[in-house]
Design brief:
The protein has 11 helices and 13 strands. It is α/β, with parallel strands linked by helices.
């Protein structure tokens, strides 16, 4: 697949603009409309109950306009009484009716006001509390990880980085789908609903303060625009992007991505390796699943390892990162380890929910 020109990409992205909105993770609560509806039903029940109490004792009331009190008069009296309007055209005249007003109708009036006023206060308080949480979140968020796209690739990527120790509070997910953002917040991540190709949406995700950005949208042209916009907002963040077609990888790097993963190519290579050696395929699959079995770890060289060769370290070293070069463990250019080097090692992780490769049967066994 070849990408269209930048102008065409911008027009395509502009056709599907989605209003951006920040959503923080929270406990599951009822929707506001449902809460208000429930309060209104409760108020209606109180009103009806009051009307029937008055109607049952209608002989103790007097209507100054036409004398006797019927069912309509009872509902009218209940309405003006509970709302504290009190026109005085219908009044209790007997001792029993006045006693019922004191013991029954007055508490019902208080309950009615609590229901209506409480609903209003709750809505206002909830809105103020949410605004305070959002402002506090924005002021404290630093060096976080922004994930663009919460599909299969984005979800797997954020699970991997969290398995290495990153807190969920340090992850912000951006996706145009409100359902995807709801799924992200349900897992404990903050979410921003909107089109990530727009700088306004990325600013809501505090991209300019992020340490690393993972770009995993459904389309390669979207990934290019997101990478351009993100790099413009943040010059120092590490940007890693995923593309479907390998021919689009150079364009992503030119757009500002530090590393580009070809999803279809990587999956194809893993398939080919599994065909040639199912055991090797299982080991590779385990290596890219952080938190269980065997893990690939990037760590600095400790002082006790300075001057040694990679083979003399306690861990299984597969590569040495020196400056901007990645050298194999047996590369003659490595020589002795330096304090500024970094090591890519294979270590045994604590098993969690995944099964280590040596404990799983090979395909066909």
């Amino acid at each position: 697949m070849k990408l269209p020109g930048h102008d065409a990409i911008a027009r395509q992205a502009g056709e599907h603009l989605v209003p951006s909105r920040v959503k923080l993770p929270r406990k599951a609560v009822e929707r506001p409309i449902r809460q208000v509806a429930k309060r209104l039903v409760m108020a209606l029940v109180v009103l009806v109950a009051t009307a029937f109490v008055v109607y049952a004792d209608r002989s103790g009331y007097r209507d100054n306009s036409d004398g006797p009190v019927d069912l309509l008069d009872a509902f009218y009296y209940a309405t003006v009484t509970l709302s504290t309007t009190g026109y005085g055209d219908i009044t209790p005249v007997s001792d029993g009716a006045r006693l019922i007003n004191i013991l029954v109708i007055t508490p019902l009036r208080v309950l009615f006001l609590i229901i209506l006023v409480g609903t209003t206060l709750e809505v206002l308080t909830e809105r103020t509390r949410e605004e305070w949480r959002l402002n506090r979140w924005r002021s404290t968020l630093r060096d976080h990880t922004v994930v663009i796209g919460f599909g299969t690739k984005g979800r797997s990527a954020v699970q991997t980085v969290c398995a290495t120790g990153l807190k969920k509070e340090q992850v912000v997910v951006v996706d145009p789908s409100s359902k995807a953002i709801e799924a992200a917040t349900a897992e404990g991540y903050a979410g921003v609903t909107g089109d990530a190709t727009r700088s306004e949406v990325l600013r809501r995700a505090e991209v300019h303060k992020a340490r690393q950005i993972i770009i995993a949208p459904q389309r390669d042209d979207t990934a290019v625009l997101v990478a351009l916009t993100a790099r413009q907002l943040n010059r120092s963040a590490k940007i890693v992007a995923a593309v479907r077609e390998e021919e689009n990888a150079p364009l992503l790097k030119q757009s500002g991505a530090d590393a580009v993963i070809t999803s279809s190519g990587a999956a194809g290579r893993l398939l080919g390796l599994s065909v040639l050696s199912p055991a090797a395929g299982m080991v590779m699959e385990d290596l890219i699943q952080q938190g269980s079995g065997l893990d690939l770890v990037d760590r600095p060289v400790v002082r006790s390892e300075v001057g040694r060769s990679p083979r003399e370290t306690e861990d299984l070293v597969v590569s040495v990162v020196r400056g901007h070069r990645v050298l194999g463990y047996d590369d003659p250019a490595v020589g002795e380890l330096q304090l500024t080097d970094r090591l890519i090692t294979i270590v045994r992780a604590t098993p969690t929910e995944h099964v280590a490769p040596h404990a799983r049967p090979l395909p066909g066994d």
